[in-house]
Every structure is written in structure tokens, then in C-alpha cells.
Design goal:
Blueprint (H helix, E strand, L loop, with lengths): L2 E8 L6 H10 L9 E10 L3 H12 L5 E10 L4 E8 L1 H11 L17 E6 L3 H14 L4 E5 L1 E7 L5 E8 L1
Antiparallel strand pairs: 1-2, 1-7, 3-4, 3-6, 4-5, 7-8
Length: about 170
């Protein structure tokens, strides 16, 4: 049976009440998925959870926990407001590239340049996105550093809700 899945770094939503307030207002996925850095974008396949888990374990065994620093924002062309990963982005890019190997190779999109980030809002009006970007800059004035020690495989369920299938602890 085909399932729609994704692989991400989930961030504990309770760490960032201010970020969650912004997401609550401006991200339709708020409440369906915690704040996260996507490593493998949604793909639909007949792979089993065990096959996905095996692939993840094979790739992630070479990675140790690492730190990321979130600093700065960007409004993407599609109207998404990104909170950018500044430090640690090279490790995240390596994870992204390596996870898109083997059975996931065919799902890698070359249409977009991968930018490690947390999406904090989605807008149809770019001017509104820029206004919220300025508001966010006033709320989060200092860089935020976190330790990444787990990678999550999720199924994208009904209504885009996240269903965690497997968590790889580094």
C-alpha cells in the first residue's frame, strides 16, 4: 500500500512559545506537525516502514548529535517564511543528500535549491509575508542554538497530519 512519508528533524514546540504563536497565526500546518527542518520532502511510495527504517539507520549511523543555530529569516518565492539554520546547515545538507540515496534517490527534486530552515508561515501575499518577517525579527532578536540528536520518519496522514512512525536516536 502506498504511503506518503517525510523525514525531518522535529523541534520540541514547547521550547519556542513565541515561534508557535507566529505559526498558529500564519502556518496552516500548525497543530498538524511540530516545527521541523525537513530532510526528505514528502514522497509517496510502497516502501514499508521497515525498509525506510533500514535506509535511515544505514545512513544515520555515520552521524553523531550536532548543534544547529537558527538565525535570520527569508521569504521564499512561494510565500513561505523561513527561519534559517545558520550554523549546522552543512551537516543538514549532508543528511539531505545522503538520505536521498538508494531507495529514495528517485524522489529527490532538482527543481529547488535546498535551504535548511523551519517554516513559520505561509502567505499568498508577499507583502504580508514581509510584514510578518519584520515582526518576527522583533520577537526573536538573538540566535537560538539547539542540539539535534534524533531524526523522525513520519507518515503524512489525513488532512496533512503528522503520524510518527520511527525515531532514529543518534
Amino acid at each position: 500500500m502506498k504511503k506518503k512519508r517525510t523525514i525531518s528533524i522535529f523541534i520540541n514546540r514547547h521550547i519556542f512559545p513565541i515561534v508557535e504563536q507566529v505559526r498558529f497565526k500564519h502556518d496552516p500546518l500548525y497543530g498538524k506537525i511540530p516545527p521541523h527542518v525537513t530532510l526528505v520532502f514528502p514522497f509517496t511510495s510502497e516502501m514499508t516502514m521497515e525498509q525506510c527504517q533500514h535506509h535511515m539507520s544505514r545512513i544515520l549511523k555515520d552521524f553523531n548529535p550536532f548543534q544547529i543555530t537558527l538565525e535570520g529569516t527569508k521569504v521564499a518565492e512561494d510565500g513561505c517564511l523561513f527561519w534559517l539554520v545558520k550554523d549546522g546547515k552543512e551537516i543538514i545538507r549532508q543528511l539531505n543528500l545522503k538520505l536521498y540515496s538508494g531507495p529514495l534517490k528517485e524522489y529527490r527534486s532538482t527543481a529547488h535549491h535546498y535551504i535548511p530552515h523551519i517554516t513559520i508561515g505561509r502567505f499568498e501575499d508577499l507583502e504580508k509575508a514581509k510584514a510578518v518577517q519584520n515582526e518576527f525579527a522583533q520577537l526573536i532578536k538573538e540566535p537560538v542554538t539547539l542540539t539535534v540528536d534524533r531524526i523522525t520518519l513520519e507518515t503524512v496522514g489525513e488532512n496533512e497530519a503528522s503520524i510518527v512512525e520511527y525515531v532514529h536516536v543518534m
